[in-house]
């Protein structure tokens, strides 16, 4: 699974509607409204790199009110939740 973190600049007056449209896309797992340079952050999860082209410039960037995107592809995921799950395999709760 390939994970991309997509930073999105939008029309400020349309953030909730744009976030809902992005969140409804099939490969988008979460959308966060954030402070700072960008207005939204979307987590996109796909099976192949080619799928990123379909979802990010092909769908997200074409939503009215999306002004710009900046995409970061994750190499590896490190999270406490994942580490705990890996070490708990085969243990009875």
Summarize this structure as a short list of keywords or feature phrases.
93 residues, 31% helix, 32% strand, globular, Transcriptional regulator, sequence-specific DNA binding, Dimeric_a/b-barrel, Tscrpt_reg_AsnC/Lrp_C
The strand line-up of the biggest sheet is: 2-3-1-4
Structural class: alpha+beta
Ends: how far apart? Answer: 28 Å
Write down how many β-strands occur, each being a DSSP E stretch of 2 or more residues.
4
Mean pLDDT score: 90
> Regarding quaternary structure, how should these chains be classified?
single chain
Report the radius of gyration as a whole number of Å.
15 Å
CATH architecture assignment: 2-Layer Sandwich
Write structural notes for this entry:
With 93 residues, the chain is α+β, with helices and mostly antiparallel strands. It has a single domain, classed as Alpha-Beta Plaits, CATH 3.30.70.920. Helix content is 31%, strand content 32%. The protein contains 3 helices and 4 strands. The protein has helices at residues 15-23, 49-60, 80-87, and strands at residues 2-10, 28-33, 40-46, 66-73. Strands 2-3-1-4 form a 4-stranded antiparallel β-sheet, covered by helices on one side. A hairpin with a 6-residue loop joins β2 and β3 (40-46). It is globular, with a radius of gyration of 15 Å. It starts with a strand and ends in a 6-residue tail after the last helix. The mean pLDDT is 90. One of its GO terms (molecular function) is sequence-specific DNA binding. Pfam families: AsnC_trans_reg (PF01037).
């Amino acid at each position: 699974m390939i994970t991309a973190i997509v930073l999105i600049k939008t029309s400020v007056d349309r953030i909730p509607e744009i976030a809902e449209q992005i969140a409804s896309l099939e490969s988008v797992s979460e959308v966060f409204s954030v402070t700072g340079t960008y207005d939204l952050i979307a987590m996109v999860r796909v099976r192949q790199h080619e799928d990123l082209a379909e979802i990010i410039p092909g769908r997200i960037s074409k939503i009215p009110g999306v002004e710009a995107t900046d995409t970061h592809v994750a190499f590896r995921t490190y999270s406490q939740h994942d580490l705990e799950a890996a070490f708990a395999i085969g243990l009875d709760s």
